């Protein structure tokens, strides 16, 4: 497929449920920590629903639609760090481990989140269906998201890269700064090392990049509904 075989728009009502399904399935299958801990669909559903409900009215999250089927094939969930999502579900031990890891990345960097409204984006989740890999969708979602956010006044983006593919992408396209990183095998939680046997990926990292350095889309045309 070519880039013209897809259309890109802000997350909307028509694709809310497809976005939820895509995020859950891709996260379970490909995200290193979720995959290693064998996170279940049930454990993920409440979290993803809550995240999307919070992100939806902010109109910062983008999706990719396959024009031939009108099905959602990729999604990137972004929020304003000033009004960020605070997950209320911590009952699952797997979620406690994952969020403890992510929160540990911010140690000594808590100040980065002390920002004004509409200045700092936070990338929460990005998912591309497997059959649509290597089609440039991730790059396109970053492009549209950055260009649109800059129009709203945003200047930077922050996030947690949990696999080597995300880190390589960021190195290639965003001129990012790695603020902190934690080796999975060395991460301690309640006197144990839950990721000591995680071999596929080396570390998780906290990243930060200026939107001004990300290439803008060639045509200033957006589907906003």
Automatic annotation (TrEMBL):
One of its GO terms (molecular function) is N-acetyltransferase activity. InterPro entries: Acyl_CoA_acyltransferase. It comes from the Bacteria. CDD domains: NAT_SF (cd04301). This is N-acetyltransferase domain-containing protein. It comes from Fluviispira sanaruensis.
């Amino acid at each position: 497929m070519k880039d013209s075989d897809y259309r890109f728009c802000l997350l909307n009502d028509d694709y809310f449920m497809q976005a939820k399904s895509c995020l859950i399935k891709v996260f379970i299958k490909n995200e290193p920590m979720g995959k290693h801990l064998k996170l279940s669909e049930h454990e993920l559903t409440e979290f993803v629903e809550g995240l999307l409900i919070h992100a939806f009215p902010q109109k910062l999250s983008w999706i990719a639609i396959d024009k031939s089927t009108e099905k959602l094939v990729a999604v990137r969930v972004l929020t304003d760090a000033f009004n960020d999502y605070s997950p209320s579900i911590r009952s699952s031990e797997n979620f406690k481990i994952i969020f403890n890891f992510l929160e540990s990345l911010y140690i000594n960097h808590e100040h980065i989140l002390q920002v004004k409204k509409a200045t700092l984006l936070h990338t929460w989740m990005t998912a591309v269906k497997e059959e649509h890999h290597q089609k440039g969708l991730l790059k396109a979602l970053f492009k549209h998201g950055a260009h649109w956010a800059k129009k709203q006044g945003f200047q930077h983006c922050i996030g947690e890269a949990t696999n080597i593919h995300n880190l390589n992408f960021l190195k290639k396209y965003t001129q990012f700064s790695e603020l902190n990183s934690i080796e999975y095998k060395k991460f301690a939680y309640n006197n144990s090392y839950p990721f000591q046997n995680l071999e596929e990926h080396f570390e998780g990292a906290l990243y930060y990049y200026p939107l001004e350095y990300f290439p803008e889309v060639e045509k200033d045309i957006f589907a906003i509904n």
